[in-house]
Design goal:
Blueprint: E1 25-28, E2 36-39, H1 41-45, E3 50-51, E4 58-59
Antiparallel strand pairs: 1-2, 3-4
Length: 60
């Protein structure tokens, strides 16, 4: 039986993150801890901000 893998999207730019995107991260919101954010290496390097939809925390 085959499994289907859905690639996560960057929380900043919505680009699909491939397994070879070295430098991408997945983490919980540092403020509320409820929402899992995923950031691609490009957005991390350029320090592009994101906003948590649950608590409105803004962070780079």
């Amino acid at each position: 039986m085959s499994q289907i893998y859905t690639m996560p999207s960057c929380s900043c730019c919505n680009r699909k993150i491939t397994p070879d995107d070295v430098g991408s991260v997945k983490f919980r919101c540092p403020d509320c801890g409820d929402v899992v954010h995923v950031r691609c290496s490009f957005c991390r390097q350029k320090e592009i901000g994101y906003t948590c939809p649950a608590c409105n925390f803004e962070g780079p």
